[in-house]
Amino acid sequence: MVVCVRCPRLVEWRERAAREAPRRFQGETYWARPLPGFGDPDARILILGLAPAANGGNRTGRIFTGDASGDFLWAALHRAGLANQPTSVRADDGLRAIGCWVTAAVKCAPPGNKPLPSERGNCAPYLVRELAALDRVRVVLALGAFAWDAALGTFAAMGEVAPRPRPRFGHGAEARIGRCSLLGSYHPSQQNTFTGKLTGSMLDAVVRRATELAEDGVDRP
Known about the structure:
There is one protein chain. The chain is α/β, with parallel strands linked by helices. The protein is 36% helix and 12% strand. A hairpin with a 2-residue loop joins strand 5 (174-177) and strand 6. The longest helix has 17 residues, at 117-133.
């Protein structure tokens, strides 16, 4: 995956971000490649984001690391006992996920944080393999509508049948699909957190629900 060049627009952008780093990051060596997921290989919860941030994961080499969205997310995971520390600054900072795996629907940083549906489609096989390998996962927590749709596509590609009508995204939305529960949350972007669309208590409630569903699914096939 880390050598993928299927999306020329994303390849150009991730590499340009590294060349034209803002002043506060100048001199740093950027990852500037497709970004793997991170976490506990025995995870029961998969947290699915949109894509790496140009100066976050694309810089640090770890998802939701080195940017404000990551600060918000990892603090919530720490409060829930799903991380050993509340911050995620760089790839060697000692962060450890506990019972969860964090990844993104699109593996490269997109311009304006807005990947195209076609780019999500190019990344789809990677996400299918990722979820298949994490065979203990029982909850997929989708951060935003884009990730929700990617999760539904992943389940379909794995032969799982979603309920009808098609589950609609919303904060706190739930759907049972095959072995997993799909749970929705607003994305912890600054656009949502600064405006109060997503608060810490709102994210805490969704993460708490994810842990409850994961525990409920312990003995399910």
